[in-house]
Amino acid sequence: MDWYEFKRGWRKVWHFIWEDDSWASWFVNVILAFLLIKFIVYPGLGLALSTSHPIVAVVSGSMEHDGSFDTWWDSYAMCNDAQCTQAEYYQKLGISKEQFMDFRFRNGFNKGDLMILYGTSPAKVKVGDIIVFKADRPDPIIHRVMLVKSELGKKVFSTKGDHNMGSFYFEAYIPEDAYVGRAVVRVPWLGYIKIGFVKLMQFIGLM
Q1: Chunked in runs of 10, what are the mean pLDDT values of the chain (207 residues)?
Q2: Distance CA 14, CA 6 (A)
Q3: What integer pLDDT is reported at residue 52 of this predicted model?
Q4: I need a labelling partner for 194 at 20 to 30 A (CA). Which of 20, 38, 202, 203 fits?
Q5: Do residues 85 and 77 lie in contact, with contact meaning Cβ atoms separated by under 8 Å?
Q6: Contact 129, 104 (CB under 8 A)
């Protein structure tokens, strides 16, 4: 193949990808976008933010608040297998309303939100922070830290979803090695784009 034929062939490919309105062209664009995000953009952000998961989409309502902060604070929780309020639940952990109101994302966040993470050192994570951690679930969990302690020189965390009535068994003991990062920025609803894109990739068999 000479240079002229190469240029001609490349122009056809370029036109097909960027100017063609066919379904085939659209499909190829989706594949290219996926490859670009997965292998260039995402790893680059991860390097810059010091975490393997720089951006996560919230896929459940476990951090949502129903109504105002006060309405949520008075909503139901479970304290030692007995019904109580969220206020009583946190007070048993030594967290007052005033302290909670100083926490980042004190009003929680919603399913479909996009959260940007920073790989803060586990040693700097404190009660009230929103962290992402790996558990025996398909997706990483993003919940609020309720307890921080040290064991053999490493941090161990306990968390709870604001919307939940209590902590799940897998949140009682989160070793430092399961910690992924701390949420620092919330982008409302934009996570639905990532959720939809992942579902599309799963549908066409690329994930």
Answers
A1: 65 64 71 69 78 91 95 96 97 97 97 94 97 92 97 96 97 96 94 77 64
A2: 12
A3: 85
A4: 20
A5: yes
A6: yes
Sheet-wide strand order for 179-187: 55-57, 114-118, 179-187, 130-133, 141-151, 154-160, 174-175
Q: Which of 156, 188, 191, 186 minimizes the C-alpha distance to 171? A: 156
Q: Quick one: which H or E segment has residue 118?
A: strand 114-118
Burial class (CB in 10 A: 0-12, 13-18, 19+), 32: exposed
Residues whose CB falls within 8 Å of the CB of residue 111, separated by 6 or more in sequence, listed in order: 58, 59, 60, 61, 64, 191
24: tokens are: 């085939």
- Give the length of the chain: 207
Longest dimension (CA), the chain: 80
Q: What is the pTM of this model?
A: 0.80
Angle, vertex CA 201, rays to CA 140 and CA 21, nearest 5: 145
∠ CA 22-26-32, rounded to 5°? 145
User: What tokens appear for 26 in the block?
Assistant: 């659209």
Model pLDDT, residue 40 = 74
Phi, psi of 38 (to 5 degrees): -70, -40
Q: Which candidate, 104, 112, 93, places its Cα nearest to that of 159?
A: 93
At position 189, the amino acid (one-letter code) is W
